[in-house]
Design brief:
The protein is α/β, with parallel strands linked by helices. It has helices at 11-19, 27-37, 52-66, 85-98, 116-122, 133-141, 158-161, 167-175, 192-199, 232-242, 255-267, 281-293, 326-333, 351-365, 377-380, 402-406, 460-467; strands at 42-45, 76-81, 106-109, 126-131, 152-156, 182-187, 206-209, 220-226, 247-251, 273-275, 298-301, 314-319, 343-349, 371-373. It folds into 2 domains: 4-209, P-loop containing nucleotide triphosphate hydrolases (Rossmann fold); 220-376, P-loop containing nucleotide triphosphate hydrolases (Rossmann fold). The protein has a 7-stranded parallel sheet with strand order 3-4-2-5-6-1-7, sandwiched between helices. Mean pLDDT is 85; it is low at 383-402 and 407-471. It binds adenosine-5'-triphosphate (ATP) and magnesium ion (MG). One of its GO terms (molecular function) is ATP binding. Keywords: ATP-binding, Cytoplasm, Helicase, Hydrolase, Nucleotide-binding.
Length: 471
């Protein structure tokens, strides 16, 4: 598949793609769009930043157009669910971008903003509704919305939607949907236990994994710095000054931690802003919009920004704290090196807990990350055995209470931990991963399945769309 023309998509869609400078389908698009166009259920797994959104949005829009009926009042033909308000807004923007020539009726149903406007938006009936599960159920329970006419269901970040934080809400929602529907699940990660849960909601799905599940994008130069806890704030400031940062996204485990990091960066003369669940939705939207435009260059976030968020020009992701769910690492670092770009991911690791999270991460992504030891001598013996620093660039190839998480409370809630398991041999800390064959070697060319995105430039109105999101 070399061109979007080969899909025979409606002209209005092809035109929008041209305007977006999409010339070549990415591997996940090439493999899933034709199947989804036939009406089959799909589970699509592909690395971060490789165009999964268009993989579901384009075939759905095409199929809507093939049978353009007027939606019944208080119903939606397409229901897309995602774990965060910001991601839902972004997905809606993508539908509106690809559907800009078809006068699409679409709306967003997310928490943290008044319901009245959403109630009014769904009243006449919609073609596309993008939602977070909690607010969607509120609308249903308030009789503002019926799910009986949904023809297409998408779970973006499907493994997250089916983990224990969201599964109860998702079950309630799915129980209200027609049995006859097309269901599309997408993510970069899919733990086995979750994949089994997914099966109950799918009908004879096509399973497409263009790269190994949970693999990280090769163009991300990943590295680990072992450091004392107390030295993390200074080291972060130092790194942000030394590194050629265009835009940096710093992840912390807690909301409080994010605020503390902002303060310490400001003290060091680095302007930064935080985004997390204790901030108002208005503030969250404004801050993310300012990060998109480049007005804010350092954004400190909890995991509400870990999944799906697509911001141009994020050159650096820093894990100020390591996540204890290894898949989260894959998603966090995937905020850089998107759409064929390059990126750097640096993880600050302190103490035995974070060392054990690191081992879980390395086991998941099947890469041993290069480590640098900046701990003071007194602290070294206490932690796990030091590993030799190594030259490895990038590599092989990313749970909490959901309603709270929709509210952005991502740092709280139950934690799923994949502990070292005797049956699975640990990756020796100092092992050099075998080099993977590279095809082409160019910036956007890579091994099978890894994105080969070719786009001359990002159209200006794309970013603007996102900033003009309602609420
Ligand atoms: N065929 C294409 N050509 C050029 N650019 C593309 C193409 N498909 C998608 N893109 C762009 O690539 C970027 C990443 O796409 P998208 O957000 O859909 O990735 P994703 O696979 O969903 O990543 P994540 O796993 O992080 O959610 C977006 O800016 C999108 O506009
Ligand atoms: Mg995505």
């Amino acid at each position: 598949m070399t061109s979007f023309q080969d899909f025979n998509l409606a002209d209005a869609l092809t035109r929008a793609l041209k305007e977006e400078n999409y010339t070549t389908p990415t591997p996940i698009q090439a493999q899933t769009i034709p199947i989804a166009l036939q009406g089959r259920d799909v589970v699509g797994i592909a690395q971060t930043g490789t165009g999964k959104t268009a993989s579901f949005a384009l075939p759905i829009l095409h199929r809507l157009l093939e049978n353009r009926i007027k939606p019944q009042p208080k119903t939606a033909r397409v229901l897309v669910l995602s774990p965060t308000r910001e991601l839902s807004g972004q997905i809606l923007d993508s539908f509106n971008t690809y559907g800009r020539h078809i006068r699409l009726s679409s709306a967003l149903a997310i928490g943290g903003v008044p319901m009245g406007r959403q109630v009014r938006a769904v009243m006449p009936g919609l073609e596309v509704l993008v939602a977070t599960p909690g607010r969607l159920l509120d609308l249903v329970q308030g009789n503002a919305l019926k799910l009986s006419h949904v023809e297409f269901l998408v779970l973006d970040e499907a493994d997250r939607m089916l983990d224990m934080g969201f599964i109860n809400d998702i079950r309630k929602i799915v129980a209200k949907l027609p049995i006859k529907r097309q269901t599309l699940f997408f993510s970069a990660t899919m733990p086995k236990d979750i994949a089994e849960l997914a099966d109950a909601m799918l009908r004879d799905p096509a399973r497409v994994a263009v790269t190994p599940v949970s693999s990280t994008v090769e163009r991300i130069a990943q590295r680990v710095i072992q450091v004392d806890h107390s030295a993390k704030p200074n080291l972060l400031a130092q790194l942000l000054k030394q590194e050629p940062v265009n835009r940096a996204l710093v992840f912390t485990r807690t909301k409080h931690g994010a605020d503390k990091v902002v303060k310490s960066l400001e003290k060091a003369g680095i302007p930064a802003q935080a985004i997390h669940g204790n901030k108002s939705q208005n503030h969250r939207e404004r801050t993310l919009a300012a990060f998109r435009t480049g007005e804010i260059r350092t954004l400190v976030a909890t995991d509400i920004a870990a999944r799906g968020i697509d911001v141009d020009g994020v050159s650096h992701v820093v894990n100020f704290d390591l996540p204890n769910v290894p898949e989260t690492y894959v998603h966090r670092i995937g905020r850089t090196a998107r759409a064929g770009a390059e990126g750097v991911a640096i993880s600050l690791v302190a103490g035995p807990d974070e060392m054990s999270y690191l081992r879980d991460i390395e086991r998941l992504i099947k890469v041993s990350l290069p480590r640098e030891d900046r701990r003071t001598p007194g602290h070294r013996e206490a932690a796990a055995p030091p590993a030799k620093p190594q030259q490895h660039r990038g590599g092989r190839p990313g749970m909490q209470n959901a309603r709270a998480n929709e509210g952005g409370n991502a740092a709280k809630g139950p934690r799923r931990r994949r502990r070292s398991n005797a049956k699975v041999p640990a990756l020796p800390g100092n092992r050099q991963e075998p080099q993977r064959p590279s095809q082409g070697g160019g910036k956007a060319g890579s091994i099978q399945g890894v994105a080969f995105l070719h786009r001359e430039g990002r159209p200006k109105n794309h970013a603007q769309n996102r900033n003009q999101r309602p609420n």
